[in-house]
Amino acid sequence: MRSFDTLNDLVACVGEEVAVSDWVTVTQDQVNRFADATGDHQWIHVDVERAKAGPFGAPIAHGFLTLSLLPVFFDTAFEIRQSGMGVNYGLNKVRFTAPVPVGSRLRARMTLMAALPIEHHGVQMTWGVSVEREGVDKPVCVAEALVRRYP
Description:
By secondary structure, this protein is an alpha+beta fold. The chain has helices spanning 7-11, 28-38, 43-46, 48-52, 63-68, 70-77, and strands spanning 2-4, 17-20, 24-25, 78-80, 85-95, 105-118, 122-133, 141-150. It contains 6 helices and 8 strands, in the order E-H-E-E-H-H-H-H-H-E-E-E-E-E.
């Protein structure tokens, strides 16, 4: 995990790959709970036997489940010691570029693309995030995430 003392220390990294997260394993239980929470019970996610005979050879995680892992990726990649809180502000771009079979291990690479001052001494950051699946060259998700951090 990379550590920064202040928001200004992080802002100095604009244009750089700042951090790589820990690996996270996607489980069938997570997929099932995500399906329950969102109402998306498509068989390629929750019907294990049918999914084995389907186009991906196994059940796959929802794209939005992969995207919803961004907070854990950020939390395991770096810390800002003198920052009180952060909030998701939105997304500019999101693409689900490859399937995530259940049991996959994922991690994210984060590049700080931009940082702008905002009210209350905060910073709005644009992050280029590439979510990787272990053992596969092509990312499974690429996104531009907007995050606001405050001291």
